[in-house]
Recover the amino acids of this structure.
């Protein structure tokens, strides 16, 4: 009987030492990821100072930088009232006429309306610089003083 008990104990012990495989289950699922990239543009405009105006006139060169998402088409123009503009004294009593010619030698302003004399470009995703020449014609009669104007850059995309 002692032998049968010992055998039973050894079988019981051996069955406890032998591991049985554990079964695991896996469930999977997929989901869609979507994104919509919208066309967008930004504009950066540093201030421009003409310096001193004399009877012969004055010239200035400023710049505009535009960044539009790739490949967004856009136009760079100026506020619609910009056929010729006037800088005023602080009292607004006198006007100093000035233009933004397409090229320094021209008298025609650039950028007054999209599709006509505006600059048409395509976005590259980074800022693209554009030179803006400005002129105040000579022979204007006005009092000495500081004159200022505000010009709006319009990006149409």
């Amino acid at each position: 009987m002692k032998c049968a008990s010992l055998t039973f104990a050894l079988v019981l012990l051996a069955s406890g030492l032998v591991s049985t495989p554990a079964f695991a289950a896996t469930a999977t699922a997929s989901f869609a990821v979507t994104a919509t990239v919208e066309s967008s543009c930004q504009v950066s405009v540093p201030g421009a100072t003409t310096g001193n105006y004399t009877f012969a006139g004055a010239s200035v060169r400023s710049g505009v930088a535009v960044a539009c998402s790739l490949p967004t088409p856009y136009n760079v123009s100026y506020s619609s009232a910009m056929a010729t503009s006037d800088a005023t004294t602080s009292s607004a009593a006198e006007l100093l006429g000035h233009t933004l010619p397409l090229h320094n030698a021209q008298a025609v302003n650039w950028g007054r309306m999209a599709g006509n004399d505006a600059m048409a470009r395509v976005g590259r995703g980074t800022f693209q610089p554009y030179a803006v020449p400005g002129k105040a014609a000579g022979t204007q009669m006005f009092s000495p003083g500081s004159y200022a104007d505000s010009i709006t850059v319009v990006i149409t995309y």
User: Anything to note?
Assistant: The CA atoms of residues 55 and 139 lie 5 Å apart. The chain has one domain: 41-156. The first strand starts at residue 41 and ends at 44. The radius of gyration is 38 Å.
